[in-house]
Automatic annotation (TrEMBL):
GO terms for cellular component: cytosolic small ribosomal subunit. This is Small ribosomal subunit protein bS1. It comes from the Bacteria. It comes from Neolewinella aurantiaca. Residues 122-185, 203-269, 290-358, 375-445, 462-532, 549-614 form the S1 motif domain. SMART domains: S1. GO terms for biological process: translation. The lineage of its organism: Bacteria, Pseudomonadati, Bacteroidota, Saprospiria, Saprospirales.
Amino acid sequence: MEAKDPEEVKETAEAAAADAAAPAEDTAAEEGSIVIGTDEDVKSTAKVIRKESTKVAVVLTEEVKEEGVEIDEADQSGATGEAHDDFNWNMTARSAASRYSAEERTAMEKQYEDSMTNISESEIMSAKVSSIIDGDVILDLNYKSDGLLPLSEFRDQAELQVGDTVEVYVEQQEDEKGQLVLSRRKAKLLRAWDRIRDSYANGTVINGKVISKTKGGLIADCGGLETFLPGSQIDIKPIVDYDAYVGKTMEFKVVKINETIKNAVVSHKALIESDLAEQREAIIASLERGQVLEGIVKNITDFGAFLDLGGVDGLLYITDISWGRINHPSDVLELNQKVNVAVLDFDENKKRISLGLKQLQKHPWEVLDETIGEGSTVEGKVVNIEDYGAFLEIQPGVEGLVHVSEVSWSNQPINAREYFTVGETKSAKVVTIDREDRKMSLSIKQLATDPWERIRENFDLESVHTGKVKNLTPYGVFVELDEGIGGMIHISDLSWTKRFGHPSEFTKVGADIQVMVLEVDEENRKMSLGHKQLEENPWETFENVFPEGSYHEATVLRKDDRGAIVQMPYGLEAYAPIKLMRKEDGTIADVDETLTVKVIEFDRDSKRLTVSHSRYVNDIRKEAKDQVYKEQAEERDNTRKVLKKTSASIERSTLGDLSAFEQLREQLSNNDDEK
């Protein structure tokens, strides 16, 4: 409720006194009534209570009340002693006020004004809760009127009570109804922004409550103002579960602000780092090589693990975790695991600390059982495979190499990656051991008897055996006849009649094949085998069947840019240069096409037969020409004979005619003579 201004009270009182002195007003007064002023005078000198809706304001003007008492005491001399006779009923407010001089009235007015608080708009002020009525809070700012705010604006204060002091923002000194307009929310936001700016400028710490999760981080309420907490600024260690922080109250430091939109980015990690900075310096200053520290595994990578040493991080490389081989640090370590580690090295400038776990134990070679020596049998797990062999781990940190040459007694090439499997267990014999250099060579084949010691007894020359194809190469087939015993069939010894570009055209790995022992080299542990030798050599017969110049039907099996392989009778394969496979129409014979060829070369020693279709075509053409020439010659001879015979008959006829004419001539001559 707005209180009356002192000047207005004075002017109203004077006007009321003047009106009371007027005759019209005196005549209007009835007997027994007391006129002390108008209605305005009464309102200005009494308590004013205005209730508007649920708003209550009370204004007391003690000055006028006190003046009335002074007037009452001053007029006691004329009292009759009866009730009410000691009061001057003709006194008015103007006559009472006239007892003060202008200077006194000015001083009193100034005193009244000084008792009020100066309020400016857009200002944050402290107010006292005077009462709480029907969901509204009445605030006393020591101003001429009280403020009114809904109780909902104080929901951040669990128990708001009368007498509490709160901060409010003055939006307007008077609205359309003359009321003071305040805002609790704006005051909170402005105060929160001031704290955020102070934290950004001076590095002070603010509190906030995480209210929700958003993309890339969290939203924190810092005194009523929402701020962004990036995921990378939550903690010094990577955070996966953001939901675990929702609802927590945390301390922050402001790292970025935007004055235009009143937005801020906060960090909890910065506080942790600042706290750890001093600890880190102290720890690094006290570090010594070989010192044993306790750390907590905070992160595990492919190359090692990072340990928190109490404010400073150290790196434990995978090679320093165990004396034995491990595939990944997680095979030995777990997150948040406490472990004791030794300081191997550190760099004060770069704040890098290298740690070791295996160094806290003696090297396994130093405590290796003395019974393990040359000739002893050991059992180990395959931990690494290379092209040249495999490493067996006898015990963590102690390994031996099984070279591919020590896998089998056979000279057949061994593929270590096919023979060994990581993780499997193998038994081997110790061939050499060097405890100082920490090296050991192992052998698997020496656990068995050398089969080459009795090779002649079991695999004599020209003996026939059945073996298994173990490997194929471009030049031959490796066949295993017994454990550790094997030999090679050269590609030329696979068949008498066929030529193969690769042994895979004849057989495959794992297939059984029958062979004949052709040669045994005990010193070099080699054996030559043959497959075609199981049959008689047909080339002695082929020499009579396929003489040079003979013609045969052949089918094209395959061809390339240089020549073609054709199938001859009796399964024999022959070679034909590509230019000699041109047909009569000028095209080259295709695969699976059957045509007649001419044998142009037969080499029994090298088992080579060369044929040509073009030569056959040429021979046919030549033969046709020769036939034509022969027929033409015979025709010429016949013609010549006919002509000769005809000529002879013509000649005989001609001579006869001449003889007759001669006789006739002689007869005529004789007749003439007679005449």
